[in-house]
Amino acid sequence: MGYYPIFIELxxxxxxxxxxGNVAQxxxxxxxxxxxxxxxxxxxxxxxxxxxxxxGRVRHIGREYDEEYLKDAxxxxxATNDKQLxxxxxxxxxxxxxxxxxxxxxxxxxxxxxxxxRKGELLIAISTSGKSPALAKKIRKEIESQFGSEYDSLxxxxxxxxxxxxxxGLPQESNKRIFNEIINSxxxxxxxxxxxxRIEDILRDIIPWExxxxxxxxKRSLGND
Length: 225
Prior knowledge:
Elements: E1 14-18, H1 22-33, E2 37-41, H2 47-54, E3 58-62, E4 73-78, H3 83-95, E5 99-102, E6 115-119, E7 122-126, H4 133-144, H5 149-166, H6 172-183, H7 187-193, H8 196-206, H9 213-219
Helix pairs in contact: 5-7
């Protein structure tokens, strides 16, 4: 049975992490990047996790796991070095219908965490369905260099254009044509060069009304400054 890929909004959501070693630390640091609120249950913490606790960025709520800690949690990550303990906790959590990932124990997970390439708002998730995290990491490294900051700039610009286009109430085919022609133009090369004049020419040729790039630039610098 395969896994259905999905992206979850974690801003302000509570994540419970059972375990305080290096693996737990790496996952916690990623969750914090996405705005999650993290609680840790562990007898020991890495130096970095202790620092995060002292800074108030995460909470160390206990040394021993208790089902009470599941309250209001959106995800549970189990990452202790005791496989039998991990299994018992995972079984209890999954019986409650909650999302849980048990590190290096695929049979004790009901979701898995992909390897991620992130360029601003662009997220590329790579999964081997739990068969080989090492291969997923290798693929991530291979494709990471293929996507520069110009893709995030393009996403930002397309977000503005999409809002402008959709509020015009044009037929769906017209919207699709505009979006596809922009994406298939040389706008990415122009963004790499930070060539505002060329970007404006491209948009002027494709969009049947004027969009002020200057207004976009006031909010955010495009290209590789």
